[in-house]
Each structure stands twice: as structure tokens, then as C-alpha cells.
Amino acid sequence: xxxxxxxFETVFTFTSVMAIFLGVxxxxxxxxxxxxxxxxxxxxxxxxxxxxxxxxxILMLLGIYIGAVYGGSIPxxxxxxxxxxxxxxxxxxxxxxxxxxxxxxxxxxxxxASGVGGIISxxxxxxxxxxxxxxxxxxxxxxxxxxxxxxxxxxxxxxxxSVVKGLIGGVIGLSIATVGIDSVTGYTRFTFDSTYLMGGxxxxxxxxxxxxxxxTLLSIEETYGQTIKKTKMKIKGFFPAKADLKATRGHxxxxxxxGTFIGTVPGTGGDIAAYxxxxxxxxxxxxxxxxxxxxxxxxxxxxxxxxxxxxGAMIPMTTLGIPGDSVTAIILGALMVQGIQPGxxxxxxxxxxxxxxxxxxxxxxxxxxxxxxIGIRYFAKVVDVPxxxxxxxxxxxxxxxxxAINNSLIDVFVMVxxxxxxxxxxxxKFSMSPIILGLILGPMIESNMRRSxxxxxxxxxxxxxxxxxxxxxxxxxxxxxxxxxxxxxxKRKAY
Length: 495
Description:
The chain is an all-alpha fold. It has helices at 2-11, 14-32, 38-44, 56-71, 73-78, 91-99, 103-137, 141-152, 155-158, 163-177, 195-198, 203-223, 242-264, 270-284, 296-320, 326-337, 346-349, 351-379, 387-406, 409-427, 433-455, 462-465, 467-494; strands at 180-181, 188-189.
């Protein structure tokens, strides 16, 4: 308790509070712009930390981290374009709500869920960081493989129109993930003697192309020749309705804990947490048939899950010196520049600094909720912008976002190609989410499966004899077979 009180004294200075506030604001802006990732925003402003005394600069980086993860949900809901990979799952329920004229309601639920998820992870971070970090340390290749397989099973849940088309999309994503240098043997695969393809096909251009570019092409086709009707949306109040909070509170709490746990596992991220949270929310929902059509429970779950990863990823970084994701790797570097060495001794030698980071993270989540709820009425105005104005802007952001990753024109061509293919897939009623899920989890599945088999000398029982991997595989079986079984039982009872 004394350490936490000391941390409050360290953080509650004008410089530190303003650094957090500016960081959150910059992060939201970075998250809103498609193609500009959380990692990019933190990396760009990393040099600024040298100009601050103490941990104020690092607190600003944490603010950017929190703000950008949340900010990605705004274009995902309003424009069906994920601002960050972690917000891809948010589109499944968010955009249908916008089409029903409930943009304000969707944004309020999203903002609240983001804040709740972040605060839950922060509380867990403060209370049981060493315990959870110890659990994550037990993860080896078999556990990572089983976790990724559990993640890929979510395709069944997100493929609301056709499970077959969802599985085809997942295979497409997994196939794209095999392009490049084999992580185990070092051989090149499907590169066609191209130096660009040796590093694999960049993930962000495909994400921007499949979701933003293709959707805009479809929108232009659907609205061509139509009379423009401007809709006026009245947004009352700043907070979600009591009924919405009551309906989503359980989903927020569960997803916050799921996201925190996934965040403690190095190498995972908000995108995996979002899809896992969405799947579990659908499993426990009273009306799972509403998912995919604008369910508020389905909207709150991925937002709470992906924002909870921010606190979870800090656990292995602070207690073990192992970054939970690419953003915490940059923050780890910033800490070391300031003379703070993360690891088991940090809590004993510099408790005011480490707990100062935890308190700063809590303040960042509060600022994120305040800025998000105040800005809702302005964010929602995006829906009223005519398509002939909005579409060119989205196109420009697509090109800028694709180019900005590696300053490569090839990435722009990849984005356009993915967008055109995505357009035809949308016409054929395919969902884009399974493709992205396969692309995200493909490398994790393949590399860890092969490492596991090397560890066991080809014995596949290694996946079933280790408790954590066996538990994840059991959850995978339940995720695949429980929904159709429940549906079958309901049909039998109806007769």
C-alpha cells in the first residue's frame, strides 16, 4: 500500500498528468487513421521520452498505447474499416448497429467497454502481476500452438452466414501466411525469386485492402446514381443507457479477464484477445442468434478484450523483463534508457517507479474514457458525410496507410490487389474476418507445431500430456462442436 501511495505522489505532477493526457489524445488520432498501427505511434514518439525527467516520457508512451488501441474501434464501427488489427473483430457487430442508425449507441458501448477492460487489466496488474507472469512463463511451443488452434476455431463463430465460406476464408489466410522464409529451416517458400516476398506478405496492407478498400469499392457501387439523403442523428447524453450497461457488464468483465490473461502470454496481442473474447461472449449469450446483426454484447466483448491486453502485456515486461508485445518492447527500451531495468528485482529496488507505471496506466484508461465519451457526438458525424466526399478520403488514407508501413510502393500494390479480391469475395458473401484470423495465427500455428514436434522427436502426444495445451485443445473441441450440438438440440425440442 505504501508503494502505491508513493507511486501516486510520483505520477500526480503537472508534467506527468499532461504527458499522459497528450499521449492518449495522440494515440486516439493514430488509432483512427487506418494503417497507422499502435507500434508505429509509440515508435515515432519514442525519442520524445529523452526530453522528459523521470518516467513522464514513458507515461506518455503508455497513453499512446491505450489511446491507439481504443481509437481503432472508431473507424471500425463507423466506416467498417479497422483502425488497428485489434479492432477488426469490433466491426462484426459495430457496423450493423451504424446501419440501423445506432452509431452513437455503438460508440458509447465501445468506449465504456474499452475503459472497463483496461481498468480490469490494470487492477489485475497491480494485484497479481508476479503470479500471472509465472503462469505465462510456463508457456512453451506446445502451449502456443494449442492457444493458436483455439483462436482459429473461432472462425466457426464469426462465420454467421456460412461456416463453409468461413473455413475457406481461414484457409486463404493460412495460405498467405506461408509465403516467405521458413522460420524453422530457413528455406524460401512461394517467393517466386522476389526479395519482397522473402519477408512474407505484409499484414497491414492486406488488412487495409480487404476491409477498407474493398468496402469502399462496394459502397461506391451500391450508392451510384442514388439520391443522397442526409440523416440526422441525435445523441443524448454521454453515457450508455442503463439497460445497455446491465446487458453488457458480464461480457465486459469476462472479456477483460480473458484479455488480461492473453496479454500475459508474450507474442500474442489484442487481435487474438478480441476474437477469443467475442467467441466466449457468443457462447455465454442469452441470444447468440443476434450475433453478427448488431449485438451490443458482441460489440462490448472484443473491445474489453483487446484493451485489457495493454495491462496484461505489462506483466511479463515488468516482472520478467520479457515484452508482451511489440509496443511493450519499445517501452522496455525506454525504461532501460531511463536507467530502469525491468525484472524480478525491480519491485524491490525501484517500487516507486514500477507502481508509478501502473498508476499511470490507470490514469490513461480514465482519460481515454473521458475523451472517448466527450468525442462521441463528433465521431458520429462521420456517418453524415456524403459518400462522394468520404470515399476519396478513405481511398487516400488506404494508400497512405499502406505506404507508411515500410515506405514501399509494393505494399500499396498489395493493398489494392487485396482490395479488389476482397470486393469480389464480398459480392460472393464471404466474410473478411476469417481471412485475417488465418493470416494472424498462421505463423504462430506452424512454427510452434514444428518446434513442439522437434522437442518431442515427432511424438504428437506432447500436445495432450501438457496440462495447459491439453486444456486449450479441449476448449477448441468445445468451440467447434458445442454450437452445432446446441442448435441441433434446440431444433429437436422445437419438434
